[in-house]
Design goal:
Chain lengths: ~375, ~300
Amino acid sequence: MIEEKERSEPKVKQLLRKILPRVKSSIRGALPQIIAVLAAFLVGAIALLATGHSPIDAYSALLTGAFGDVFGIGQTLTQATPIIFTALAFLFAFKSGLFNIGAEGQLLFGGFTAALVGISFNNLPVFIHLPLALLAGALGGAFWGFIPAVLKAKLGAHEVITTMMLSYVAFYVTGYMVNYPFKAPGWVAQTVFVAPSAELPRILQPTQLSASIIIALILAGFIYYILERTTLGYEVRAIGLNPSAAESGGINVKKGMVLALVISGAIAGLGGAGEVLGVHRRFIEGFSPGYGWDGLAVALIGGLHPAGAVVAAILFGALRSGGMVMTRVTGVPLDIIFVLQALVVLFVAAPKLIRYLLEKGGLKWWK
Amino acid sequence: MVEVIEIINVGLFAAALRMATPVAFAALGGIFSERVGIVNIALEGMMLTGAFTGVAVCFFSGNAWLGVLAAVLAGGLLGLLHALLTVKFVGNQIVSGTGINIFALGFTAYMCQIIWGSRGASQSVQGLSVISIPLLKDIPILGGILGSHTPLVYLMLIVTVISYIVLFKTPVGLRIRAVGEHPSAADTAGINVYKTKYICVIVSGMLAGLGGAFLSLGHLSLFALGMTGGRGFIALAAMILGGWKPLTAFGASLLFGFADALQMNLQGLGLLPSQIILTIPYVLTIIVLAGVVRKTIPPSDYKPYVKE
């Protein structure tokens, strides 16, 4: 025993020596983002004061609501889960130079196709039905990403406009589906419950946290691997950095763009499937309170790195779950959290702004 | 089928012109911004903020025109923000635009609750009233289409023509276009590139704010959550379809206005589920964009200009 300990301790130290500088440098690298978040909360505090609310009360309610107990943490992670998906979706397309701002539509459409498979079969075993429903979600999202991809590659239609328009179309088309052909009996526009064999298990009762978060985390690692270690990832990044150089380097740019947007859509669609199969267990009209838009902001705040996206998604999940508690306790309208999110995006949009503000404040830039 | 033919009447075309108004204002805004090389996808948020500010100021002051003025200023303020982030701090134009859009959605919903205690919509206000043009309104058909509207519809027509003249018939317009097409050459020629960019992006926001004010004060007389419904993006499509030129962009806006008017009238008939009818303007936008975009050349490469 003692021998083993002696032998293992240096190993731990070695490991720490290896990891610590990396942790340090990644915190260093994330400093602009951290400052952006702090600056956003500062401006938000001013907005709260100006509208007759106490920022201290509001923020402390938000914080305790989001992280105060196990239930809060569970709800925070529940809210963070779909945002991890949509952030990864935005990030993947962005690496190829495309702005997929329509993750909302891909999430909705993927959620619907997953629900369709979930309600269509009754006696399939779990190990077939659940993967099938998840796959359907990914394919639904991929299809919704394929449309703007082809329009971009073949006709040059700008994806910012088409993906945005398709988000509205997805909202209304799925809305039509659950108001007419697939409507469950009752008042609410929703499908019937999916079969138990298509349900993603809940992993932290009584919160709604489902196994979808495990898929999200694995996916984050997988996306990192694809982008950094595979030919596909290399091609995607090459297209994003310089399309004409990539083209002359023998990469089929159009094909790469289509593939990137299709994969991006599939990721968002899988996120929708996770919501439908894990949280709601059915498709409810317009179930997403804007997870698609969050994803975009989260990807940017996360420095366009999958790990950063996970961290930033948890922050946004905390804003959403803690925000609800804040509204209940202090009466501050929930929408202040979207103002906060927007402020973070605006600060992140222009890193030079933060640098400028720091220098004005007499602080030295850290590099 | 008879019913479908029946809705195609003078009223439909009048409604098309009405619904083209917010899109045209925003499309003109888009032109001013893109002509100096700044992509402005924040038009949506600028419109929404304009719509909200217009109603809020009208609610407290009782004067709709004061509301319109405030909407223009609010839009201009967001334009200034967009210009600061993208010109001065060289931020990504799409990211900045998206940030402004999210901000507008959150800010208007938040303030709507602070002022009226309701997230969905404001209280009704006394919006702009319809005016009739004396002789014009008596001309058959044309009078029915053009004769009676809120003043903002006529203002839009005037602003379209002024924008055309300014951009293409004056030295100022030449400078504006030069800044977008070839900033370093413009700089060498003694044009203040940064100042031109600032002014045009602010004007862009002001026009979008005006479009928003039309929606809330000239059309519904209240503010509703997310009431712009993607019109800022549709305006971008109108701008592209119009080849970044005011008159043709106005023509393109008419097309989208027509789709919007048709959608509203079709809903009244109840032939198709409303969800399907509501997709018409968005699907049309995608089709139009896919159909024409190859034949258009943007007026700028949208790269940030850094003075050497």
